[in-house]
Amino acid sequence: MAMAVANCCFSVVTSTVKFRCCVPSQPYLATSQHSIASVTCKAVVNRRRRPGKYKEGVSQKKSPGKSKDKRSSLHDEDDDGITGKRNAGKSQSMAFKSFGAQRKDKKEFKFDMKEQQFEPQNLKDAAFLDAVVKVYCTHTEPDYSLPWQKQRQYTSTGSAFMIGNGKLLTNAHCVEYYTQVKVKRRGDDTKYVAKVLARGVDCDIALLSVESEEFWEGAEPLKFGHLPRLQDAVTVVGYPLGGDTISVTKGVVSRIEVTSYAHGSSDLLGIQIDAAINPGNSGGPAFNDQGECIGVAFQVYRSEEVENIGYVIPTAVVSHFLKDFERNEKYTGFPSLGVMLQKLENPALRACLKVQSNEGVLVRRVEPTADANRVLKEGDVIVSFDDVHVGCEGTVPFRSNERIAFRYLISQKFAGDEAELGIIRAGSFMKVKVVLNPRVHLVPYHVDGGQPSYLIIAGLVFTPLSEPLIEEECEGSIGLKLLAKSRYSLARFKGEQIVILSQVLANEVNFGYEDMSNQQVLKFNGTQIKNIHHLAHLVDSCKNRYLVFEFEDNYLVVLEREATSACSPHILKDYGIPSERSSDLSEPYVDSLEDNQAVDQDFGNSTVSNLEIGFDGLLWT
Fold first, then answer.
1. 173 belongs to the catalytic site
2. N or C: which end of the chain has fewer CB within 10 A?
């Protein structure tokens, strides 16, 4: 059964499922272990992306350039000028990227949740439509295979809306890898430069500001409403493909539940609607009958068996994003408990674990980097979260006569918040407290800072493994062993990376190693490598005659240190490379492993089984 998430410029492929964003943009592939695919509705992009990537809601134009990813994306309906953004949909929550922004007055993020009793007599004349603007973004994506340079730029368009105090909201995928962002109001022919204050990759929200006072003349910000009910009418407004003027589509609320966010590969509260959402709608508001904004359009779900399934980010998630930015002067992300849970639906399983009632979920694994690793053990049964009882299916009460996934409660917290868990351990009930923080990914879905780190030693190009690199290189060229690590391994400590030899720039000094590519380097001169900064530190401080690199399956690369130093300038010149390392590796190295005890051969290799990834009875929270 082929399923594709379309309408958005982003596409995620899980088995036969694909997610896409609602912005006409380049196609992206994002793998997700969830059975339902979602698409991020992105901007309209003026460049066609490499095949095999999920599309975000951006409409993009094709620009001539190399195409390294030879994978084909499923059901790419946005090939008519729409290309999506990067791959992001995995079972694990993804790392976020935040841009430093100055703290603003708290008043800027207060929402008026009162009903306005708006009577939509003639929607086209409604004043709130004037708060919806068109976003024009120029993107310059890094070249992960050649990390010292960037790819050819492309442009996209999406939607945004005013929230007051000089601020706009849109989708994070609409302004990913941005170099310039401009916005234009309805009925105006002038574009104004916008500044990106923060991007929440996991929740797919971005905060923009426009300094021009002329842009804000006569503007009225939107008012935020409450979470809607099932079958409530909803109106989606934005600037999708098919024309230059504002577009309005109507539908109803079909479902409200924890949803897979394709762009951020996270699971947060989402609103499913049947109103049409198309590429370019990304970042546009969804309204109720009172003229209140009840969310942000961001992704759609497409398959051969269903139609008209769109998704909206609810105001509860939007409010969390804004409060997080206000508190920390940057966006820090949604927290995670960091445990893998198993449902306790089987009575014999509950009896064996001495769980008397029909409740609770079993702790199967605890992430080493999570604070829960200090207080929870494998075999514990979580029966409550802040005194809210957890059902045997991993659900908790939600509104009246509804239930929702347990991780919804976790998403209501902020990074650094404390939660009280009620657990049953060996038949005894107890309460423990745990600090919640964003999840640490061994292989990140997005690269902070926008440019990947790299280190060139005698023509050997080292770089950390990341999902964008896997997309760019194609899964086939990465190798099954490395691909399995990227999919299922857990970080053993904060700052850990899988460092790979991306390629070898041929030179006399590396004779015999030219065909090596995409192999993980494990040790340098006998020392286990923690991350690429650690590798650079080890090389810089080496006084031995030989540089010895140990790879998977005991493959060795040995270089003479003096010859390596002598040839480096010539290699950089021959290949037109500005520096032998990225700028971040020039900073002094600080060991990120607090408890610097010996790490055995399992270092960086704490894998999750295929059963745990694919079985619906197991959940990451």
1. yes
2. N
